[in-house]
Amino acid sequence: MNKPLWIWQANNGLNTGDSIRPDSKDAVSTLDYLCSLQELPLVWFKDLDHHYTPAVIRSLRDLYYKWQITGSAVVLSSPRPSVPEELEREMVSINLELPSNEEIQGVVRHWETVNGTQLPLSPAVIAATLKGLTTSEIRHALEKLKISPDQDPLACLQEEKRYLIAKQGTVEYIAKVPAVEELGGLENLKDWLKKRKELILQGEGSHEITPKGILLMGVSGCGKSLCIKAIASAWQLPLYRLEMVRIFSGAHGNPEQAFADACRLMEEMAPAILWIDEIEMGLSATGSTAVDPVLSRIFAFFLTWMQEKPPGLFVAATANRIDLLPAEMIRKGRFDQVFFVDLPGVTERRHIFGIHLKKRGFDPEQFNLDVFADGTEGWNGAEIEQCVISAITSAAMEQRELELKDMYAARKQIVPISTTMEEQVRHIRNWAYERAVKASAEE
To answer: Where is each AAA+ ATPase domain found (predicted)?
Structure first.
């Protein structure tokens, strides 16, 4: 624009390039001075939103009408998107997005050059891990990597990202996810994930065929949450959990705005997986629209957002009672598939017993798992895990190795939920019989 740049800050005053004008820390007096000038510079106000008063707003409007003829401009910068209603039509709002993968890689290379060091991870891997952070937060994470040479570099970056994302308040970054091999059975679900792995990574050019989301329903304790973590592992994508309790708590402002901000933050994270746990409890408008208009508006926003969100952002939701969800949420176009995670069959139960024994350092072949698989009909995965833990605990309290008798004793102490909540479990299974695809292969 071939004009001098003047910068105003509340702590310094008006810096004209050559000097700082005296007594210019007050916003009103500074604006009055600018209004009196004949030759007008380009003026940048930092964080002026903290000083909005009727006098400041009026002076800004006077400057606008005077300076639009001269070709000068006032630039207001702030991390908060707050604009007084009186200024909205006299102002152009520009939102600076979070750094892209290419920009993050540029920050990494510049940091390596300035510090004269070579990071143990490639810029592409660092960019994929730190996507969604600001430039300053990325530099903070790199500095932590520099001063923690003995830690696993990827785990160090993931932990730093988890901490920085947690400050936002409503979204949690899940760094540690299990491998797909830790899922017992569920062959139909695994096959669906394998076939769509490449589609989720194709990006903008294939919006129509890029997977949008998946809904997992089923009996409590059957591993729906574990499945979603395994999706992140299978597709090698970062996993984020939307905390609906924090959104409705009011600690992060208006729930509607907090939810919209969380969704837009997730758009910046793509490609990624967004996990919404027990979606029927937090985002169902059934039976509550008349008494809770806020929930109704959040629900309507979510439906539109699911339809219009960018490709590469995959929504994975779980529900214990999908019959509580309205039809418009589960229709095709929002979720690609609805899977029913049923009580494991006999082959799956044997597999789950083996997984939990092996995970805790025991050889599954030393135990007669066929007997336990046959004798635990109606058990879910969580109950099988607790049986193994209980048996290991009994042996540890007696300071000896785990034996077969410990497994038998632990089995007798557990009453499965399919027995204690028989009517509710039967209702869920009957509802899903012809309405959802079974995650497990037929036995």
So the answer is: 210-345
- The torsion angles phi and psi of 53, rounded to 5 degrees, stand at -130, 170
Tell me if the domain spanning 346-377+381-415 has CATH number 3.30.2010.
Answer: no
Compute the distance between CA of residue 57 and CA of residue 85 in angstroms, rounded to an integer.
10
Tell me: domain 180-341, CATH 3.10.20.310, correct? Answer: no
**Residue tagged 């969100």 (tokens):** 309
Half-sphere exposure at residue 81, Cβ-oriented, CA atoms within 13 angstroms? 8
Domain locations along the chain: 5-90, 101-167, 180-341, 346-377+381-415
Kindly report the pTM of this predicted structure. 0.74
- pLDDT classification of 431: cutoffs 50, 70, 90: confident
Do you find a cis peptide bond into 81, omega within 30 degrees of 0?
no
Tokens (6 digits) for 152: 């696993």
CB of 285 within 8 A of CB of 295?
Answer: yes
What confidence category does residue 286 fall into, taking pLDDT thresholds of 50, 70 and 90?
low
Cα–Cα nearest to 219, from 374, 372, 422, 414: 422
Task: Transcribe 65-97 into DSSP letters.
Answer: HHHHHHT--EEEE-SS----GGGGGG------P
Q: How many CB atoms lie within 10 A of CB 261?
A: 19
Alpha carbons 366 and 434: distance in angstroms, whole number: 40
- Tokens representing 278 are 């027990």
**Dist CA 425 CA 414 (whole Å):** 17
Distance from C-alpha of 338 to C-alpha of 322, rounded to nearest angstrom: 10
* Least trusted range by pLDDT, from 7-16, 181-190, 269-278, 329-338: 329-338
